[in-house]
Amino acid sequence: MNNDLKQKEIMREKTSEFKRLFAEKYESCMCRELLGHDISKEDEMEQVLEQGLLFDFCPCVVRDIIEYWRR
User: Fold this and answer.
1) What is d(CA 20, CA 27) in angstroms, rounded to the nearest whole number?
2) Are 34 and 57 in contact (CB under 8 A)?
3) Among 52, 55, 57, 62, which one has the highest count of C-beta atoms within 10 angstroms of its own C-beta?
4) What's 7-62 look like in SS3?
């Protein structure tokens, strides 16, 4: 197996592991499902901001992602 194929296989394995770990805590990896709002729509983005999700919930998700990669 050449080096490119080895690297692709490593990335597939890492991606699979990440998805598994993420799914243990979160029901989706899509922002609109995690937030309960479609932030591409102005009125829904306003709701996200009003509810504080962008500054409370989102940083927690990022923190969890960083922790997954530190394992």
Assistant:
1) 11
2) yes
3) 57
4) HHHHHHHHHHHHHHHHHHHCCCCCHHHHHCCCCCCHHHHHHHHHCCHHHHHHHHHH
Identify the CA nearest to 61 among candidates 25, 36, 33, 37: 25
Burial of residue 48 (CB within 10 Å: 0-12, 13-18, 19+) is buried
CA atoms of 38 and 28, how far apart (whole Å): 14
The 10s digit of each residue's pLDDT in 3-61 is 899 999 999 999 999 899 999 999 999 999 999 999 999 999 999 999 999 999 999 99
Roughly what angle, to the nearest 10 degrees, separates helices 53-70 and 3-25? 130
Cβ(27)–Cβ(33) under 8 Å?
A: yes
Q: Which residue type does 41 have?
A: K
